[in-house]
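Need a sequence for this fold. Nothing fancy.
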């Protein structure tokens, strides 16, 4: 049996299975003992900390607390190099010492990380031969690869979380006399970041700007394009608060006759809702190719408010449309993206559809906005039953009772 070859094959196979740094580090030192040494220590420095592992322990220190000889090895030039550790008493991380000799290998991590693998032998064991040094250096290669991959993955996850936090809709504001509630569920395969636009902003305490739309595409690219539209919308507020004017100005900014990027296209509803002096609310909506909002009357009647208009970014000049909706106290206007009605599931894999949405709103007519939004989200989730779906966004605007 070729033991060195088997060890290396095992290292490449096992260390390639996981992107968990701590798991890979622990596996590396356990593979090294007893195949390469009687004891082993793996030390990695990154994020201004020193992390170390033995087969049965792990710890974290500041780099300055590492033994001086180990700091010197870490400071050397990049490259996998193995060299003998002469006999003596060697201080180790965690306050322990080793009496003996061994091999020290500088890991080559293609990342902002320094690493060293220390393979220790007792004083009564033979010193490392050239073949031992060569095997230690070869063993360090899959360890270095696993560390690099794990750290890269960790940072990708962190970046995705930062992007997600920046691109997800902000909490809804409080507006006297108006109930606002939303539901937002990005497509499952898009790292929890979606291209649906959901933005609400208080204007003067008694009115609010509402926008809900759907950027073509999915994932980070669509989310960034949607965020760009949100920022542009906010920048327009000092210029105009008329929804139709806002749509036209946004179209001027996004239209590119030679553009090949699908994320320049979007469907969008922009509305301004304000409280009426004697109760109720007035909603002025401008539409660009978006599914019609549903108006829920206190009688339980639900009507689709057909507005029309063309998709944002499709042409210049564009044709958009506008409608004014008066809500009595307790009545609602429900905005939604096509991810709601196009959600495929149920017993036959059919679309959720507008008819089911209307039936749900009829059943929940007069209920608080938060209850309605939550019920829509739950119903579509139940309908999907875990299946993939498009981005889903819902905004419920209700005149307070």
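Here you go.
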């Amino acid at each position: 049996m070729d033991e060195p070859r088997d060890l290396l094959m095992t290292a490449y196979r096992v260390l390639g299975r996981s992107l968990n740094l701590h798991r890979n580090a622990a596996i590396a030192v356990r593979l090294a003992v007893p195949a390469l040494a009687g004891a082993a220590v793996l030390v990695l420095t990154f994020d201004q900390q020193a992390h170390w592992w033995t087969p049965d322990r792990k710890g974290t220190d500041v780099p300055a607390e590492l033994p001086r000889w180990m700091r010197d090895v870490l400071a050397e030039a990049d490259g996998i190099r193995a060299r003998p550790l002469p006999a003596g008493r060697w201080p180790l991380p965690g306050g322990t010492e080793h009496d003996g000799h061994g091999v020290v290998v500088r890991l080559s991590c293609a990342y902002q990380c320094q690493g060293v693998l220390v393979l220790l032998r007792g004083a009564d064991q033979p010193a490392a031969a050239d073949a031992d040094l060569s095997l230690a250096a070869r063993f360090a290669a899959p360890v270095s690869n696993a560390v690099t991959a794990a750290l890269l993955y960790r940072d990708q996850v962190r970046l995705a979380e930062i992007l997600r936090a920046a691109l997800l809709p902000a909490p809804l504001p409080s507006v006297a006399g108006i109930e606002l509630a939303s539901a937002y569920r990005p497509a499952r395969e898009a790292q929890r970041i979606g291209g649906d636009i959901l933005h609400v902003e208080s204007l003067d305490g008694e009115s609010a700007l509402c926008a809900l739309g759907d950027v073509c595409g999915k994932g980070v690219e669509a989310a960034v394009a949607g965020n760009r539209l949100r920022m542009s919308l906010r920048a327009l507020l000092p210029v105009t608060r008329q929804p139709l004017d806002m749509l036209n100005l946004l179209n001027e900014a996004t239209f590119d006759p030679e553009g090949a990027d699908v994320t320049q296209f979007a469907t969008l509803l922009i509305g301004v809702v304000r409280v009426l002096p004697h109760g109720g609310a007035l909603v002025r909506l401008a539409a660009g190719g978006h599914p019609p909002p549903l108006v829920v009357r206190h009688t339980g009647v639900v009507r689709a408010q057909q507005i029309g208009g063309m998709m944002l970014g499709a042409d210049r000049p564009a044709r958009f449309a506008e409608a004014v909706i008066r809500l009595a106290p307790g009545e609602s206007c429900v905005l939604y993206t096509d991810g709601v009605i196009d959600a495929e599931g149920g017993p036959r894999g059919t679309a959720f559809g507008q008819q089911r949405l209307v039936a749900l709103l009829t059943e929940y007519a007069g209920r608080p906005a938060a209850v309605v939004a939550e019920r829509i989200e739950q119903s579509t989730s139940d309908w999907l039953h875990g299946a993939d779906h498009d981005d889903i966004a819902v905004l419920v605007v209700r005149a307070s009772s």
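For context: The CA atoms of residues 110 and 180 lie 49 Å apart.
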